[in-house]
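fold-stage: in
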Amino acid sequence: MDPVVVVGAGPVGQTTALLLAKWGVPSVLLDRRPGRDVVGSRAICQQRDVLDVWASVGAGEQIAAEGVTWTTARTFHGDRELFDQTFADAGRSPFPPFVNLSQARTEEILDERIAAEPLVDLRWDSEVLEVGPDGTVRLARGELRAPFVVLCSGSGGGLRERLGVAFEGRSFDDRFLICDIRVDLPGWATERRFFFDPVWNPGRQVLIHPCPDSTFRIDWQVPPDADLSPEAVDARIRAIVGDRPYELVWTSVYRFHSRCADRFRVGRVLLAGDAAHLVSPFGARGLNSGVADAENAAWKIAHVGRGWAGEGLLESYHHERHAAARENIAVTTATMDFLVPPDAARAARRADVLARAVDDLSARAEVDSGRLAEPFWYADSPLTTPDPTRSFAGRPPRGALPAPGPGVLLPDVSVRLRRPCGCGSWPGPGCWCWSCPLRTWRPPTVPPTPSTRRCRCTAPPSSTPTADWSPHSPPVRGRCGSCVPTRTWPRCSPDPTRRRWPPRCAARWETAARWETSEGERVCRTTPCRERIGVHRTTAPPPGPYRTTRSDHHRSRPIEEEPDGVLPQRR
């Protein structure tokens, strides 16, 4: 497959290229800048499912480890705390709900993965002038033809407009002053704090996020004519940190927008990230939704490009991610209407809700400081098979998760890999437990030694293996000095569909199950142990060589060869 062209080497473009490489698809990653801008926090809040996507390309664990984990969001009105929100986890995810790490550092980590990935060709100083629906990419120096193009070039509209894509929405008059400061604020390192109408920013809001290395990101909502001189900025910071010494690391001012492209797919071109949608910053839905775009686009391009699916699969990208963008805009627009009421009626309602929320628990649910990012549900996707018994109930309450159903992302669960037989080794060439129900390997070809014997006790072996020992030899009686086998063998059921599960002795001697025949019926025999053993159901063993000897007290002594393919089952 020819390389896919990805335009824009921001986090969304980086993720797209890495995910394509994961599917074995080469890509060319173009960016007009001469190199990486390692400055400023910018998009800092990474959601759990985004970390999971990055983990699939080898970056999620490092981003989570370097970032600041926070699980609580506190909301204040004036100088009083209204409530705090702890985020739900329906399963047991390996990642926290949110991790704060600067976009600059996140891009560096993704760059490290790109440098180690031969299928990604990153080209700086490559300005794209035009992208055609047929996959033609015209550069300032040359031209490329690609089977698919993913446009992750940011909010600039030149390439999008040349494709004939509208970008409707609105821009807000208020601006945000951002400051990254390094300061010691005890007790603030694991919490996000949101302030309505604080005395040091009356009539507007302030948002404070913890970041690594004792750095805090502060966002002030300010009017268009606000004084942003260095002295005024210092006064704003001092109102929060007091007399503590601080270091101003980075500052910026931005105006936020709420816009969405009318088409996310034009021919063989897919739009992703800020090139497809812009949302206000409350709720951390910008970068997080862009990474979800990248994940959705990458696997569909791989399937269509390799002939595993038809062209119609690409259209489902527009259907699914456009619906997700409209949901994000609806959520963030409702937040902005609460933060900056557009008319007198909504301003009066906001004042009433905030006043009642101090003591009224029901009013606190109406306080909208931003519904934080969450994975979108594809209940209406053409790829989702509906289930009348589990219809989607709509957007769940804030902080809750939708009920599992078609199109809803399943919660993470932890899978505990349990040693099925309790031996000291995982199933593999070094495991000496012959009764392991997962045993699909051949036993090792060397006899056990004191360091590789079947039991886990520390006593030395009481005897050494004989010269004629083989991997199919039965357990040697008394090999482990601390294991005391009984004198009699336990009886087995004559029913070929039932057998006794090999038990463990006090020294954790791992016993071996042996099949044998008696009177035309295949039954099993286990090595001796004093513990009581249970009966478990399994299938009859395949035909094989068996040898039977009789005794007054037990079934046969060891057989010469164990039939291949006998996989005991533990219930």
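fold-stage: in (second)
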Amino acid sequence: MRYWKGFSLMEVLVALAVTVAVGGAIGTLLVRSQQTGRSSEAAEASTQLLRSLVGAIRISPAAWLPTQPGEERTLSPGDISKLLGERKDSFADPSLYTVRVRDATQQGASRKTFQVEVCVRAGAETLCQTQDISMPPVDVVYATTPSDRGGNYTPAPATAYVLLKILGPSGGAALASFAGQSFTQYGSYPLTLSPGAYTLDARTASDARYTYEPSPSSLAVTLRASDAKEITVNYACATGAADLTVVPPEGMEAVPPGTVRLSPGDRDVSRGGLVPYLPPGSYTLNARDVQGGPYTYSPAYHPGQSLDVRTCETASATVAYRPVTGALRVVVNKAAGMAGSPTVRVSGPGLPSGKDITGTTTLENLVPGTYAVAPQDLLEDGVRFRGTASPANPAVEAGETATSTVSYAPVSAKLTVEVTGPSGAPAPSVRVTGPSGFSQSIGAYGSHPYGDLAPGTYGVQATTVSDSLYTYAPAPATASVSLAAGDRKTASVAYAPATGALRVTVQGLPAGASPSVVKVDGVPLSANPQTFPYQAPGNHTVQADTFTYGSYTYAPDAPSWTVSVSPGATATATVTYTQLQGVVDVTVSGLPPAAVGAGTAPFWTLTKPDGGTEQGRGSRTFSGMPTGTYRLTAANVTYGGIT
């Protein structure tokens, strides 16, 4: 231990020899302590100093004990400093200690007893510890070595003495063995050994930071009786250390393993902390970017990326991560009645080709700078929705999330015109007009949507149409529809027949007779049969006149009647003419009855109105004869020579 600095090898060995010669002159130590304070550091310091002094007394009694019986010796600060050695803590100041050695031998005792007291001040408290030492007879105590008292001393036979010194840097570690004992601390170790061959084995030692290499690492020692040798092992610091601090991105407990490495050696130091046992030299920290949330973080090195590692020194460095990208959150608010998802294009330094999004989206890891948020129109079921971004050019900063809100609203409307009509009806005629010269014609039945219309008032005008028989009227004929942005409205036009038709057939007319004798509402027929189109719904009058044609008279079955006409339907009327008939009586008189039946040749002829004839000889009645003018001619009859 360091407490022995300043004493010669001979002093130590001679003192040790005295101790051995008396057969264990130092007996059982009785320890008692009186503690006035409770400081653990002070207690440890006083205990260490007490042990050092007792050890020094064992090695060299004359250097420390009183010289007269009953005397008390107070150690000087210089003596205390020797005992403290290279202590570096707050109790390294010799002035904090009071050390006394008193001769406490009882009268008539065969052995000497000395009381050692060590007191140390710890602030306002003073901590004292005492220890009694029993020594051999007085003449041994006061005649230890020639250098101490001038007497003669002969070492005990069959023993050898070794002072083993293990030296090294303050606070370092040792790992040595000699003569069956292990030594893990620096210091001086007096050993009494039997003659023989011994081997010193010193191995590499380490503490929490550094490794220490011994010199020599191995030594063969041969001891003879009465030998006194000094063996020194010097430990030298062989490595250094690095104390690394890795500051992860905000919100992360640590960076992923393998992110930060130390070269040479390619050590993973991502967790930071102490990196012990580094060979001296220049080292480089290499850290990768880290993704944390929506941002990318890059490393910054303090004080630099390189570390200079020296033996028994700890180099320090910090790797702190800072954000190098930002994020942009685009909030898309759809308008009421908007079912689809609109497209919003975002472009900027990190999106040179632009990126289309279709809803609320957070764009991560963007290069800082100014971005453009451009909403695209959405035409949905005839209504155009247009978005407005606020702000339209958000600024993205590293480690920050900018926000742009896109709000959509309708800017146009839709009008659907539904045109209906009966099956077989002619094509409708509808026109739709509106703002900015809008005009569309409709010529077919069905649904006609007109989308993306400017808001305003639209007019629907429908006109009557007709086919060969009927007219069809729209309902309504005109309509006005007011459209606001976002409206989807329907205007309906229903076509229905407005008129009917009347078909008149005349039967019984003689060949060549004109049908004009029949009239519909006073209008004579010009053809037979004849259809009168576009007749107003309701009752119509059909008149039939009696007429004479070819000397015959024809009469209708009724002179007039009423026919009901319905819209979209053809009513029919049939007029039947009948040739009027009567009885023609031919009476022959003035001839003798015998004359009438005397021959076969007719003597009278009845010419009908149509030129036909009837002949006979006597009286005759013709019934069912058509009305008209008949002519009767008679020839002379000669009967019995009389004409």
